[in-house]
Amino acid sequence: MNAFLQHLIPLLIAAVASMVWLGLNALVWVYCERKFAGHIQRRPGPFEVGPHGVLQPLIDGLKLMSKQLLTPDNADAPLYWLAPILSMVPVLLLYLPIPYGPVLTGMNINLGLLLILAFSSFNGLAVILAGWASNNKWGVLGAARAVSQTVAYEIPLLLTVLAISFMTGTLNLVDITTMQGGHIGNWFIWKQPLAFLIFLVAMFGETNRAPFDLAEAESELTAGFHTEYSSMGFGLFFLAEYGYMVVMCSVCSVLFLGGFNGPIPGIEGWWWMLLKTYALLSFMVWVRWTFPRVRFDQLLNINWKWLLPLATFNLLATALIIKL
Amino acid sequence: MEVMAKIAFGVYTLVILSGSILAVTSSSLVRALVGLITTLVGVAGMYLLLATPFMAFMQLLIYIGAVSVLIFFAVMLTRAEKGGDEGGKAPMKTYVYGLAATMAPAALLGWLIMTKPVDSVAVPVEVTIKQLGDGLLGSYFLPFELISVILMVAMAGAVLLTWEKRGK
Lengths: 324, 168
Known about the structure:
Low-confidence stretches of chain A: none
Distance between the termini of chain B: 63 Å
Radius of gyration of chain B: 20 Å
Mean pLDDT of chain A: 85
Low-confidence stretches of chain B: none
Distance between the termini of chain A: 49 Å
Order of helices and strands of chain B: HHHHHH
Order of helices and strands of chain A: HHHHHHHHHHHH
Radius of gyration of chain A: 20 Å
Oligomer: heterodimer
Helix content of chain A: 55-70%
């Protein structure tokens, strides 16, 4: 029993910490995104609530929570409310295996990478349930669009991740990070530049971010699967999206940018991990407000005609080089 | 530890059973699918309990992430309504047959386990991915290849079928 408690208590602490971390990140990034957007597109952004509008996300959260929860007529109510919960809960698990430091890892397991991939695949299910249960044709169409995108972009993502685990021989995120220790030349971005680029593009597709945000374009495409959701129903989808963004950027910095390793030996620490993750997040925001949205057939063509063959080629080349 | 394992076994059994009951009793196909997914999650938990996290995560990744979404699309394309023929009450005979069909394998397996207990009653040891890969490409190479051939044939068949349809 004691041994069990010894395992359980750190895990519980990690779970609560990742919940807090997710909430904090969402709050900060909603604000940052609007501010960045304001600067990139030369418009003020939030300025009214608090100094420089810093209280805006808090007020937005309050607004979301105080609105009425509506269930559409003839909707399948249990499934309708299951969907946002199903999209939110797995995200909390995704934070557990991410190594922020040698000690600062929620759960150091051998299959950390696989855990992230497995639980992030719940998102497609949540989206299609939401679209179907809304009893709304736009909802169903949006869900079909979103799912075909998520399923398609998962394949090149998996293939690039596989190339990294071919090289390292492990799926443990801590081990992958420690293998990149030392100086900046050991980071896998130099050994797998193609995989890094593919991962970067697939990341936008997976998290439904612009220029690949056809799954949830707000007004132009009737928002898609979450059209009918009011209040925190929408809020949970929104939080889950920000959660996925942070997870994907963390995984990207662990796999390619050395995780908590610094560029020169001797200065490792969680701040490097945060710095890299936030640099990638800022890049995502920058791309969103710079590039126009692609058309849906273009989106799928990019994936099936470019990313997938390139990722397969990269995987085969990696296997060949390792064998030699 | 053993008590916790037993509690976990009970919880996963409950998840599997409730999922399967939901799957067979609900009149809406999508709800039945949700029941199926619940059952699959429970089975993934069972894999975790057997110290095979790789199988558990693969179960989640493949069955919940891919197969259930595929079934969902199939259900949506059939436009199955709530008030279909299958939605009505079934005759008593069906229930009796169904019960017999469920009990028969359960009784057989239960009898086997009771009379011929398996050697490994100790705490299972986690199989590393390296061992798994060695096994798949070493001693179990032939079954592994046969399965991939079957999958290839199925894929080729599906492509062939859709090809004919497009030509018309």
